[in-house]
């Protein structure tokens, strides 16, 4: 990141020769490239940004206050509406936190089911992140491709639980239903693979068919975005987040790994969470990458984007490994959990690796069915806090590139 | 390091007046720090090379209060606020839970919110978390660079996550309740 002083010495920047007045510009809350209702108050001098003040809270729905009046199982639908692009992962994070508090151990079959669902959710979320990022930078077609692929995942989720966006599928003790045996092929998948739209197959076969198809498309996304010279010019070397700053600002997820810190809760987290991923083979993509373009710097927009792309590949690997394990697992897919279950007089905090970072849930029980405090620590909340240091000194047009690379979802920030 | 080892280290560094208590029986073991000492303890936790707790996972507050007088006898806690700091280290791969107990109201004057030192200069992200704790729970952070409401509008009255919070009847012409 260049300082204002360095920019001032840069003779190529005309604004410093022809002095202009400072101006306050409101970007949002309805600006399309701010990913929801985020308002950035910019103090600018011409095109150059001096200060960015994010104003959040437009989507505040008092989820934490509501959580104090509901039993944990009743709060699960509210977690869907926090990160509405990765509802499954939010359900999982909260269910695990509640299970940790009441000391419940879910059966093997439920754990394998959760891996399949959570990793498909991660793919769907990263596809939106990728498509919307292309849109931010003026490239329209990746967005359409990404949504075409995501549509199939949503259809598969709909077959499993009946909902397309707010699932409430993974719940305390396992999931609400088992995976369906026989389904009609999702229309999108039938069209893409040129099958009959009436084809009946099992849910897992449909997932395998989809993954085969998605895997063959990833090269195409890299050609469209990652290796596109316009894309590289707009992302590489911009918005550089150093390792120290990433830690200091509590950044997590792809933002943290894009800055070169090898930390993924699926591998390094608490045992109640890592137990799910025991015996799975997967890599944690961490910047710097050997195949990065020469312009890319550790911790810049390009690295953060590339971490997400590589995570999709790893998620595909995980789903492929989980499917035979799920089929081999015996027993129930869930343990019963009564709404009137009394929570112990204890408290626990658990973070899980949601697509956007480490999503934490903190529950304080007090002998009642309702918790004394239900807290959701949002990963995007922390990731958004770095917009000011990242954007200062850059040009106005770089803001969508930087905010987009953080991939924030306002529903999760405002709760 | 385990919580017990960290507790012993902190007691030897600061004395038992500042490091008040430890609970190892909880699901997540925690230690309690006196409110006046939080800033120096925080600095030590982050900078000491045996600890390096440089990542503030979460900072939040809990209101231990039962507004219903019939249930208050069974509640089992004295009315107080608790600030909870969840810390971890990427390098040493250990974590720690630090708690600070605060009175619900400063000097028992209702409406006078309690104050504690800010740790925003130790962990930068504490800036936003403390703003949220101020906004929703009503805790003042002394030395905070920009202590304004973050989720609620700036002209909001009261701190919604307090147990005795009363929902407004009206806000800018919008009827409540």
Spell out the key features of this protein.
heterodimer; A: 415 residues; Enolase-like, domain 1; Cytochrome-c3 Hydrogenase, chain B; 2 domains; three-stranded antiparallel sheet; B: alpha/beta; Beta Polymerase, domain 2; five-stranded mixed sheet; two-stranded parallel ribbon; 4 helices; 23% helix; globular
| Shape annotation of chain B | globular
The greatest inter-chain interface is formed by: A-B, 37 and 34 residues
Assign the CATH superfamily of the largest domain in chain A: Cytochrome-c3 Hydrogenase, chain B
The separation of the N and C termini of chain A measures 31 Å
Secondary-structure element series of chain B: HEEHEHEEEHEEE
Rg of chain A, Å, rounded: 22 Å
CATH architecture of chain B: 2-Layer Sandwich
Uncertain regions of chain B: pLDDT < 50 for 5+ in a row?
none
CATH class of the largest domain in chain A: Mainly Alpha
Given helix and strand content, the structural type of chain A is alpha+beta
Number of helical segments with 4 or more residues of chain B: 4
Please report the first level of CATH classification, the CATH class of chain B.
Answer: Alpha Beta
Largest sheet of chain A: 3 strands, antiparallel
What oligomeric state is this?
heterodimer
Overall spatial form of chain A: globular
Low-confidence stretches of chain A: none
Rg of chain B (C-alpha, Å): 18 Å
The overall strand count of chain B is 9
């Amino acid at each position: 990141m260049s300082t204002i002083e360095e920019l001032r010495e840069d003779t190529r920047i005309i604004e410093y020769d022809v002095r202009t007045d400072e101006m306050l510009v409101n970007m949002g809350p309805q600006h399309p490239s701010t990913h929801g209702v985020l308002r950035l108050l910019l103090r600018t001098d011409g095109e150059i940004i001096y200060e960015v003040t994010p104003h959040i809270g437009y989507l505040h729905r008092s989820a934490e206050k509501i959580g104090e009046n509901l039993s944990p199982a009743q709060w699960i639908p509210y977690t869907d509406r926090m990160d509405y692009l990765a509802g499954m992962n939010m359900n999982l994070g909260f269910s695990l936190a509640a299970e940790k508090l009441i000391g419940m151990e879910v059966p093997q079959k439920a754990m394998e089911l959760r891996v399949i669902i959570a990793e498909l959710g991660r793919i769907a979320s990263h596809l939106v992140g990728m498509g919307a990022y292309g849109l931010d930078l003026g490239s329209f077609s990746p967005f359409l491709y990404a949504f075409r692929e995501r549509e199939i995942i949503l259809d598969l989720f709909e077959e499993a639980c009946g909902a397309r966006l707010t699932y409430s599928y993974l719940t305390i003790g396992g999931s609400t239903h088992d995976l369906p045996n026989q389904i009609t092929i999702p229309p999108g998948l039938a069209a893409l693979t040129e099958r009959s739209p009436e084809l009946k197959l099992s849910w897992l076969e449909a997932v395998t068919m989809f993954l085969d198809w998605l895997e063959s498309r990833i090269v195409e996304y890299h050609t469209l975005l990652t290796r596109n010279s316009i894309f590289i010019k707009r992302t590489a070397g911009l918005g550089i987040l150093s390792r120290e700053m990433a830690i200091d600002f509590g950044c997590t997820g792809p933002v943290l790994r894009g800055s070169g810190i090898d930390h993924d809760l699926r591998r390094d987290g608490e045992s109640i969470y890592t137990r799910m991923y025991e015996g799975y083979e997967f890599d944690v993509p961490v910047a710097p990458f050997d195949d990065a373009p020469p312009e890319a710097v550790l911790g810049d927009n390009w690295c953060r984007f590339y971490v997400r792309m590589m995570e999709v590949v790893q998620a595909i690997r995980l789903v492929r490994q989980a499917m035979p394990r799920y089929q081999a697992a015996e027993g129930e897919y869930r343990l019963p959990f009564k709404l009137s279950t009394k929570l112990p007089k204890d408290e626990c905090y658990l973070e899980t690796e949601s697509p956007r970072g480490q999503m934490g849930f903190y529950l304080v029980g007090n002998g009642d069915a309702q918790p004394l405090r239900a807290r959701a620590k949002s990963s995007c909340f922390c990731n958004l806090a770095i917009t000011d240091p990242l954007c200062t000194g850059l040009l106005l047009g770089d803001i969508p590139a930087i905010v987009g690379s953080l991939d924030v979802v306002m529903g999760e920030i405002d709760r | 390091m385990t919580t017990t080892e960290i507790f012993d280290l902190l007691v030897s560094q600061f004395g038992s007046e500042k490091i008040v208590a430890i609970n190892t029986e909880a699901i997540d073991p925690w230690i309690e720090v006196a409110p006046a000492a939080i800033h120096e303890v925080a600095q030590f936790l982050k900078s000491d090379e045996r600890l390096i707790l440089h990542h503030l996972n979460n900072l939040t507050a809990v209101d231990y209060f039962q507004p219903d007088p019939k249930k208050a006898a069974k509640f089992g806690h004295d009315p107080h606020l608790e600030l909870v700091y969840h810390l971890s280290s990427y390098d040493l791969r250990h974590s720690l839970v630090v708690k600070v107990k605060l009175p619900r109201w400063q000097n028992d004057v209702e409406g006078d919110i309690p104050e504690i030192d800010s740790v925003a200069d130790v962990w930068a992200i504490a800036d936003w978390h403390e703003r949220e704790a101020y906004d929703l729970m009503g805790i003042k952070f002394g030395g905070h660079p920009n202590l304004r409401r973050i989720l609620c509008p700036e002209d909001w009255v009261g701190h919604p996550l307090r147990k005795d919070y009363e929902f407004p009847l009206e806000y800018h012409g919008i009827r409540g309740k």
